[in-house]
Amino acid sequence: MEWIYIKDMKKHIGEKVEFRGWLWNKRVSGKIGFLQLRDGTGFVQGVVEKSTLGEEKYKEVKKLKMESSLIVRGTVVEDQRSPVGFELHIDEVEIVHNPSEDYPISKKEHGIDFLMEHRHLWLRSRRQFHILKVRHEIIKAIREFYNNEGFVLIDTPIFTGSIGESAGNTFEIDYFDYGKVYLAQTGQLYLEAAAMALGKVYNLGPTFRAEKSKTRRHLIEFWMNEAEVAYYTHEDNMRLQENLVSYVVKKVLENASENLVALGRDISKLEKIEAPFPRITYTEAIKLLNKKGSDIQWGEDLGADDETLISEEFDKPVIIEKYPKSVKAFYMQPDPENPDVVLCDDMIAPEGYGEIIGASERIWQEDVLIERLKENNLPVEEYQWYLDLRKFGSVPHSGFGLGIERTVAWICGLKHIREAIPFARTLYRVYP
Ligand code: ATP
Ligand code: MG
Ligand code: MG
Ligand code: MG
């Protein structure tokens, strides 16, 4: 008999199959029992009867604890009442492992601290299954997009000899005789070097920021996709970002809408996400916020609440461009029409999910870059290799960073970012 995954069982209606997986819940009475089964590809209800299994086996099944592991054999039977359209009528049960203890996550409601403490087990729940599937589809779509567009994947390093862009939130590590090095806050500077070698490049990897504030949008370790393109202007850059985000949403709707529906996501909101996206300047954003009752002043950075207020005005991601130079990183190209602002943009997700992308055209003139490093009190000598990129074949170039977990939280409709990554590292949690 063939071992078939739940996701493929629909093609085997009426056939006898073997299932290998786990029991996540059960209801067993005198003669008939309903086993809620999962195998990592989906969930299905299994039906057992005392008359088929025999007295002895039925008794054993009755004693199975939640999260027992089982191999069962039976017939796939069409059932319109089932959310997957079929059931498994079981005639053989092989018990691989029946836990001796009750499963810790067995109540309807558990507090978030308890769940995070048991994240290694919590991942087995339906909800987490659906989130992880969507995350997988998002990352798959990102890679596909870049492959289609002719980008080369460049893996940027995690240990970095210089502070990425701001000293405030870096993790310092002792690195042999070298002394202090830092965990990457971004791979951008390295990606810029790669763009001068290969033209269109991207990365996808973890980044680390010692974020001291507790928000529902910040993780300490998060995954970022960055892209960098030689000869791209600020305009080209914005177009690339909206094309990427539209592509990702489209692919997730194609490949994972069942998962989104199971999460209670309003799909119609995602169906509207198509490029081009609305664009406003930072200055317009400040005016809009003031009109909506905020007392934010020109020159202040937008906070999470400001981003939420702005997102209420749009049903697509909104691109806010040209922030004041003083609130942005040292490498951003000043706007030739107004040197107080830089050729940057943030993409703000709809429905209050905040900034998903930070982007800019990069300074490509060596002297301007040195001046900006000094203004930001960054040690120029540690950026020699980066300055070399402006000494040899320097060209205007642009790029951005997309937060993977922010994107997952938005597309899944999660209230908090901690569920958007398998094992979240937050201010007070590195276990499990
Ligand atoms: P924020 O303003 O929300 O703190 P940022 O401007 O510091 O974000 P960038 O340096 O622009 O972030 O990083 C690029 C992207 O990485 C952001 O647009 C966001 O999607 C994501 N990101 C940044 N910090 C975090 C974090 N601590 N946890 C999860 N994602 C993050
Ligand atoms: Mg930040
Ligand atoms: Mg920001
Ligand atoms: Mg940013």
Describe what this molecule looks like in 3D.
With 432 residues, this protein is of the alpha+beta class. It folds into 2 domains: 6-97, Beta Barrel (OB fold (Dihydrolipoamide Acetyltransferase, E2P)); 120-420, Bira Bifunctional Protein, Domain 2 (BirA Bifunctional Protein, domain 2, 2-Layer Sandwich), CATH 3.30.930.10. The chain has 14 helices and 18 strands. It has helices spanning 6-9, 50-53, 55-62, 112-117, 119-122, 126-148, 188-198, 234-262, 267-271, 282-291, 304-311, 366-375, 384-391, 404-412, and strands spanning 16-28, 32-38, 43-49, 68-78, 86-97, 152-153, 159-160, 172-175, 179-183, 200-208, 221-230, 279-281, 318-321, 334-335, 338-342, 344-349, 354-362, 397-403. The strands form 4 sheets. An 8-stranded mixed beta sheet has the order 6-10-11-18-17-16-13-12. The chain has a 5-stranded mixed beta barrel with strand order 1-2-3-5-4. A 3-stranded antiparallel beta sheet has the order 7-9-8, with no helix packed on it. β4 and β5 (86-97) form a beta hairpin. α6 crosses α14 (404-412). It is elongated, with a radius of gyration of 26 Å. The mean pLDDT is 97. Adenosine-5'-triphosphate (ATP) binds next to β11, β17, β18 and α14.
